[in-house]
From TrEMBL:
Its EC number is 2.6.1.11. This is Acetylornithine aminotransferase. It comes from Banduia mediterranea. Binds 1 pyridoxal phosphate per subunit. Keywords: Amino-acid biosynthesis, Aminotransferase, Arginine biosynthesis, Cytoplasm, Pyridoxal phosphate, Transferase. Its main location: cytoplasm. Pyridoxal 5'-phosphate binds at F140, D225, E226, V227, Q228, T283. Its cofactor is pyridoxal 5'-phosphate.
C-alpha cells in the first residue's frame, strides 16, 4: 500500500490508478482561456480541449460564476425531486433544437445508453422482433458494454464477450449497404454526423438524407450521436442543423458542460413516451451544479458571434495544416467540420500521428489523435487569434523537428 502524500507526480498514477489509461508525462495544474500550465509552470497552447470538451476554454468567467453561484445554493437532490437549473436547461435545449423532451445523464456514454435503450423499447413495443440496431464501422459511442457494442470498433469489445446482440455494422457513407440491410426488424439507425474517434470523417449529405428516408420507410428511429459534434463545434449549435436532416433522438455531452460532466438525450414527446416511469434513471443525472454550468455554456455558445467565429478559425487552421502537409510531407489534405479538424497522415507517416502529438507537447502545444493515422485539432471555439497563431507556430516547430 502506498503512503498518502500531498506531493503527487505522473509516477503516482502508476502506483495508485487502474492502468486502463497511459496519460502523458506532464501533469497540468491550471488553465486560463486556451492555455494550460504544468507542475513546472511550463505553458502549453490547448488545441485538444480535453477531447473537444472545454468549448469556451479554461475558467471562462461566465462558467466560473455559474458554478460558484450554484455551489453556494444546492449541489444534489437526485431525481426524486426536480430542480430549477435542470428545468431551465431542458427548456432552452428544447427551444433551440427539434426536441421536446430531455433526459439528463453524466456523460456521452450514458446519454447513448439511454438512447439505445429507448430505441429498443420503441421497437419492441411496436412489433415483435423489431429490435435490430444498425450502426457503422469505425463509429464510437461510449465505453459501456452496450455502447461499445453499438460502436463499430472491435478493439473496444475484445475480452468483454459475450456482447449484446441484435447489432449490425455497415460501412459508413454507403447508401447501398444501408438500403440492403435495413428492414422492418430495425428499431434504429445510429450514426455520428461526423465520425470523431474513427478518423474525423463527415457524413455525406446524400448518406444523411438516405438514412432519414430509410428510417421513415421502415418505422425506425434515426439516432444522432452528437456527443463530440454538438455545442457549436461544427459552427452550428448541432451538426444536424447543417446537414438539413432532423434525427428522432440526439445525444449530447462533452462541450455541453464546458468541462463539467453532463450529458443529455434529446427527443420528441411521442418517442419519449416509450420510456415511462421506472424504465430508466440516473442518481446524478440533471444535478443542479452540472445544469447551471451547462446553461451558461449554452447561452454563450448560442451567441451568433461565437458560432460565426468557428468557421473563421477553422479556415485558418486548415490552411496552415494543409501548407504544413505540403512542406513536410506528413499530412494529406485536412477534413472535418468547423473546429473538429483531422489531418490524415501521409503514406510515409501512417500510424505515426501520436509522434506528432508527443513532439507538440515538447514544443508547448497540446493536440490529439483520431486513431493512429489522423492528427486531430479541436481548440476552444473562442480561442484568440494570437493564441491560435502561436499554437500553429509551435505545431510547425514540432513537425519540423521530427522531419529534420
Amino acid at each position: 500500500m502506498s503512503s498518502p502524500s500531498t506531493s503527487v507526480s505522473r509516477s503516482t498514477f502508476d502506483e495508485v490508478m487502474v492502468p486502463n489509461y497511459v496519460p502523458g508525462a506532464i501533469v497540468p495544474v491550471r488553465g486560463q482561456g486556451s492555455r494550460i500550465w504544468d507542475q513546472d509552470d511550463k505553458e502549453y497552447i490547448d488545441f485538444a480541449c480535453g477531447i473537444a470538451v472545454t468549448v469556451l476554454g479554461h475558467c471562462h468567467p461566465k462558467l466560473v460564476a455559474a458554478l460558484t453561484e450554484q455551489g453556494n445554493k444546492l449541489w444534489h437532490l437526485s431525481n426524486v425531486v426536480t430542480n430549477e437549473p435542470a428545468l431551465r436547461l431542458a427548456s432552452k435545449l428544447t427551444e433551440k433544437t427539434f426536441a421536446e423532451r430531455v433526459f439528463f445523464a453524466n456523460s456521452g456514454g450514458e446519454a447513448n445508453e439511454a438512447a439505445f435503450k429507448l430505441a429498443r423499447r420503441y421497437g419492441n413495443t411496436r412489433a415483435e422482433g423489431k429490435n435490430e440496431i444498425i450502426s457503422f464501422h469505425n463509429a464510437f459511442h461510449g465505453r459501456t458494454l452496450f455502447t461499445v457494442s453499438v460502436g463499430g470498433q472491435a478493439k473496444y469489445t475484445q475480452g468483454f464477450e459475450p456482447i449484446p446482440g441484435g447489432i449490425t455494422h455497415l460501412p459508413f457513407n454507403d447508401v447501398a449497404a444501408l438500403e440492403a440491410a435495413i428492414s422492418d426488424k430495425t428499431c434504429a439507425v445510429v450514426m455520428e454526423p461526423l465520425q470523431g474517434e474513427g478518423g474525423i470523417l463527415p457524413a455525406t449529405a446524400e448518406f444523411a438524407r438516405a438514412a432519414r428516408e430509410l428510417c421513415n420507410k421502415h418505422d425506425a428511429l434515426l439516432v444522432y450521436d452528437e456527443v463530440q459534434t454538438g455545442m457549436g463545434r461544427t459552427g452550428e449549435l448541432y451538426a444536424y442543423m447543417g446537414l438539413g436532416v432532423t434525427p428522432d433522438i440526439l445525444t449530447t455531452a462533452k462541450g455541453l458542460g464546458g468541462g463539467f460532466p453532463i450529458g443529455a438525450m434529446l427527443t420528441t414527446k411521442a418517442i419519449a413516451d416509450y420510456l415511462p416511469f421506472g424504465t430508466h434513471g440516473s442518481t446524478y443525472g440533471g444535478n443542479p451544479l452540472g445544469c447551471a454550468v451547462a446553461e451558461a455554456v449554452l447561452d454563450t455558445v448560442s451567441e451568433p458571434a461565437v458560432l460565426e467565429g468557428v468557421q473563421v478559425r477553422a479556415e485558418k487552421i486548415r490552411a496552415r495544416l494543409d501548407a504544413l502537409g505540403e512542406r513536410y510531407g506528413v499530412f494529406g489534405p485536412t477534413r472535418g467540420l468547423g473546429l473538429l479538424i483531422g489531418a490524415p497522415m501521409s503514406e510515409a507517416w501512417k500510424g505515426r500521428a501520436k509522434e506528432i502529438v508527443n513532439a507538440g507537447w515538447k514544443h508547448g502545444v497540446w493536440c490529439l489523435v483520431a486513431g493512429p493515422d489522423v492528427l486531430r485539432i479541436a481548440p476552444s471555439l473562442i480561442i484568440p487569434e494570437a493564441e491560435l497563431e502561436l499554437g500553429l507556430e509551435r505545431l510547425e516547430a514540432a513537425v519540423a523537428e521530427l522531419c529534420a
